[in-house]
Specification:
binds coenzyme A, 2-enoyl-CoA Hydratase, Chain A, domain 1, 10 helices, 8 strands, 2 domains, about 10% strand, alpha/beta, two-stranded parallel ribbon
Length: about 260
């Protein structure tokens, strides 16, 4: 794995994946994007891992795309730029659709692609120091690859403002528009994220995976008979699943379900 990433997995299955390029404010270039994607895929495939905490070292959470790399890419062809941008698209998709819950501990500022990473996590805790900005248009760029995730998270109205203004917004604003769920002092953000991760170990791993998938399936869809039918089928399947049966039996027998780890 890259030296710019660090993963620590607890015996209970909480993996903390830390962006460790503090000197460059955790900006990511093509190599780091590929390494980060591979590491997320590895954690997703590892049955010992139940929850992924995404954290960062140093002052900033992430300064987004490495601007030196962006500048270098100008001398490449459009096809090469497309292939390159698709690597970032794969990273965002991988994080967004990870089958395990993802909890972000945002200890400092996040810009551009850094906001994209935050938007792709299920639960987000951030410090008062965590400023946010979609600065791309200041650099003559656009927040293209991250836009589906950011727009879905904060909505079109806020996205229109912050995409064109490129202004910095504070953690309270980020919380108000839905990018951040809770705010904690800087040195308590990672412990808070980990304590939430520990609480998620009480929930059924397969149920959480399916519940997360359900959000993707129903979000922004018109509520119609097909959707209602689909949701009824989803719960019917879940009730008879191994985990559904174990959860209901454990409740009625007044014992913890067999997936609980302490
Ligand atoms: N890509 C590449 N290098 C970056 C970077 C990025 N996105 N962000 C910061 N760095 C580098 C700086 O170039 C500097 O390198 P140097 O020491 O070789 O000069 C180093 O990180 C420290 O940055 P500096 O600007 O001196 O620190 P700061 O604390 O004053 O400011 C930031 C930190 C993150 C606010 C500022 O660097 C910044 O605005 N970066 C751009 C963020 C951005 O717009 N990202 C979106 C990209 S689409």
């Amino acid at each position: 794995m890259s030296t710019l990433l660090h993963t620590e997995t607890s015996t209970t299955g909480i993996a903390t994946l830390t962006l460790a390029n503090a000197e460059r404010h955790n900006a990511f270039d093509d190599t780091l994007i590929v390494d980060l994607t591979r590491e997320l895929e590895r954690l997703d495939a590892d049955p010992a891992v139940r929850v992924v905490v995404l954290a960062a070292a140093g002052k900033s959470f992430s300064a987004g795309a490495d601007l030196g790399w962006m500048k270098r890419m100008a001398s490449y062809s459009e096809a090469e730029n497309l292939a390159d941008a698709q690597k970032l698209a794969k990273l965002m998709h991988t994080l967004d659709t990870l089958s395990k819950p993802t909890v972000a501990a945002v200890q400092g500022p996040a810009y551009g692609g850094g906001v994209g990473l935050v938007a792709c996590c299920d639960m987000v805790f951030a410090a008062p120091e965590a400023l946010f900005a979609l600065t791309e248009v200041k650099l003559g760029l656009i927040p293209a690859v991250i836009s589906p995730y950011v727009v879905r998270k904060i909505g079109a109205s806020h996205a229109r403002r912050y995409f064109v203004s490129a202004e910095r917004f504070d953690v309270q604003t980020a919380q108000r528009i839905g990018l951040v769920h809770d705010i904690a002092p800087r040195d308590e953000v990672l412990p808070l994220a980990r304590s939430w991760a520990a609480q998620l170990l009480i929930n059924g791993p397969e149920s959480m995976r399916e519940a997360k998938r359900l959000v993707f399936e129903v979000a922004d869809r018109p509520i119609c008979s097909e959707l209602n039918q689909h949701c009824a089928e989803r719960i019917a399947r879940q009730r008879v699943s191994r985990e559904g049966q174990e959860g209901l039996t454990a409740f009625l027998e007044k014992r913890p379900p067999n997936w609980v780890r302490h």
